[in-house]
Structure formats: C-alpha cells, structure tokens
Amino acid sequence: METGYIPRTLDQQEKFFLWEADQFIVAVLMVGIGVSLGMMFTGLVCGAVASFLYGRLKSGKHQKFAAHLMYWWLPSSLSIKTQATPPSECRYFLG
Question: Which of 6, 62, 64, 83 is most buried by its number of CB atoms within 10 A?
Fold first, then answer.
C-alpha cells in the first residue's frame, strides 16, 4: 500500500524544498530573470534573498497574505471579477 504525506494541519501550505509555494515562486522568478540577463549566480543569490525577505514579511500574517496584497495594490483589471467583493479601488462606501 502506498503511503503519502499527511500535513499537520488542514491549512498547511504546500512546500517545495525549504520554502512554501509562494516563496518558491518568488525565488524561481528571480532566478529566471538572472538567467535571462546572463547573470545566473546573481539571480540565485537575489532569489534566495528575496524569498527569505518575503518569508520574513509574511511571517505571523494570514496564509493568503500575497492574495490580499495583490487585491489591494494591483489594478482590478488584472484580478478575477467576483460578485461578493467590490473592486479594490472602491475604498469608500456610501450608506
């Protein structure tokens, strides 16, 4: 019988190597930029540092911290339109 990984809590995020998925994406993006510019070692170092700093930034915050940042700081034309939440640029409501 095949055994699989059982997370400690139901809300635990997926991990790649030592980082959670969103930290890993930050590192891979930085490495990709470094490789495309012809500076692979610099991209590796910048990716590791950026993902470490992002991990420190989001420590102690909600698990969907990155999604909350994207909702508030990116234009609403880039996000998925929902019926339940207003666009992020509507910050003041009447009524």
Answer: 64
Q: Give the Cα separation of 16 and 9 in Å (integer).
A: 17
C-alpha to C-alpha distances, 37 to 16, 33, 40, 43, 70, nearest whole angstrom: 25, 6, 8, 9, 26
Q: Which residues, in sequence order, are bridge partners of residue 19? A: 16
Run of H or E residues at 16: strand 15-16
- Does this model's pTM top 0.70? no
Count other Cβ atoms within 10 Å, centred on residue 82.
8
Candidates 62, 66, 59; CA nearest to 29 is 66
- How is residue 59 written in tokens? 């420590």
**What is the model's pLDDT at position 57?**
85
Q: So where are the chain's domains?
A: 13-55
